[in-house]
Amino acid sequence: MTPAWQEAGEGPGCEQRPQSSDAGPVVAMYVDRRLARLDVTEPGVDTDAGIGVNDSVSAVLKAYGAAVVVTPHKYTHEQGGQYLTVPGAERKRLVFETDGTNVTRYRIGRSPEVDWVEGCA
């Protein structure tokens, strides 16, 4: 059976597709036809620790503790923006983007794709 993206004339590479979710919007990134990461951009979909968009930085730090690596945001660091990265097993990571106070979006997936700030762009 031919995968749906081949039927649509798409080939390997990188693409992002919105996924239907009862809880809220999720965007799936596929690289070379394999799921590489999921992006959550609006409230409604929480992590296993109960953290989601609009939650506070302190809630992330409390939920994930010493595992969190804090780095400046590529574009909004001058306004206090940060990445809060939670390393996982087998090159997997959870990356929260913040405005310095609250989570503005987050993504989970494998490295290096989960670290691509612009997604497939």
**Mind telling me the C-alpha Rg?**
15 Å
Structural class: mainly beta
Distance between the termini: 29 Å
How many strands in all?
Answer: 7
Helical percent range? under 10%
Strand order, sheet with most strands? 1-2-3-7-6-5-4
**Sheet with most strands:** 7 strands, antiparallel
Taking pLDDT < 50 over at least 5 consecutive residues as the criterion, the unreliable ranges are 1-11
Quote the average pLDDT: 88
Q: How large a portion of the residues is in β-strands, by DSSP E?
A: 35-45%
**Annotation field: number of helices:** 2
Write down the secondary-structure element order.
Answer: HEEEHEEEE
Shape: globular
Plain-language structure description:
The protein starts with a helix and ends in an 11-residue tail after the last strand. Mean pLDDT is 88; it is low at 1-11. Helices cover 10% and strands 36% of the residues. The relative contact order is 0.18. By secondary structure, the chain is mostly beta strands. The radius of gyration is 15 Å and the shape is globular. The protein has a 7-stranded antiparallel beta sheet, covered by helices on one side. The chain is built from 2 helices and 7 strands; from the N terminus they run H-E-E-E-H-E-E-E-E.
